[in-house]
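Issue 218. Parser rejects a valid record. Input:
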Amino acid sequence: MVLPEFVTSLLATGLCGVLIVAILEKLVPVVPSIGIYLFFGLTAGSEFSAVVPLVIISAFGSMAGSLCWYYLARLSDAHPNLRLLSDWLGRFKVVSRGSDWYSESMTRMALVQLVPAARVYAGLASAVVAIDALRFAVATFIGCLIWNGTLITAGWMVRHL
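Output the parser choked on:
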């Protein structure tokens, strides 16, 4: 897989680059997360212990990217110039109907992070249905640990086993 030069430059900075790429993956999902996290695993060190910090830092970055979407939606509801985003999101009745099912369980919020398309924009929907930011952040972090950890570990195993 050939990555853009700016991505390889970021990754060359180590864990800080992993954090930035994970945040960007949530904000601008040009390259699918499956490819990014498999790549992280493929390029990890020869010891499995090198995978653990990658998983934790990438999950933290993914959570931070989701929180950016979350707070953008929250801000759009309060700021007149951004109200269009909130109005657009509010049009989707499925968001309102699914809000009770989704918000009553942190497990469900975490499991959304395992659905490739939904994981990117879950922060928008969570803000629209007024889920508490801390509950959203914790559930998102747990879900990202599972998603990113599985993919990074798979990438590491492909290269080293």
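Fixed in the parser; the record now loads. The chain has nine helices and no strands.
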